[in-house]
Amino acid sequence: MSVATGGSEAAAAAAAAGGGSGNRVFFQSPRSGGGSGGSSGGSSREDSVSAAAVVQVQQQQQQRRHQQGKVTVKYDRKELRKRLVLEEWIVEQLGQLYGCEEEEMPDVEIDIDDLLDAANEEERALKLQETLVDCYKPTEEFIKELLTRIRGMRKLSPPQKKSI
């Protein structure tokens, strides 16, 4: 089976018969090499069934392409933006506390989700003090400000995969 669009002979004839304008899609059966130019009476039904099957397959392929293009991350953009701003602030403050650039900074990891898991402010402050134990500058102001900034934030869970 072949697909003909508005430019073929059959399409032009059908468009003239229908009186409509614009591109139309017509389905034609393959031409047989050895037979007469006519077709049997049962083939038109087979052609319409085949045409419907082709259209359905094309629609399914288009749907799959559309589904693959969707973003599957379920995070709230506003929450992500707040998290990014907070992380940039933390890096800047750690640079000031340790007196160096980000590349030269000792391996200090402040996990915001871990802090949000803590039961209360005191437990969060203790975790931060343990993380910053090797900092030679006072860290109390940084810890206090960080705890203020994370107040009201939510823990981010990993994105959930949708079944396709």
Automatic annotation (TrEMBL):
Compositional bias (Gly residues): 32-41
Low complexity bias spans: 1-16, 51-62
Record InterPro entries: CPI-17 (IPR008025), CPI-17_sf (IPR036658)
Keyword vocabulary terms for this entry: Acetylation, Phosphoprotein, Protein phosphatase inhibitor
Pfam families (alphabetical): PP1_inhibitor
Keyword Acetylation: yes
Gene Ontology MF terms in the entry: protein serine/threonine phosphatase inhibitor activity
GO cellular component: cytoplasm
Span list, region Disordered: 1-70
Family: Belongs to the PP1 inhibitor family.
Protein name, UniProt field: PP14C phosphatase
Species in which this protein is naturally found: Pterocles burchelli
Gene that encodes it: Ppp1r14c
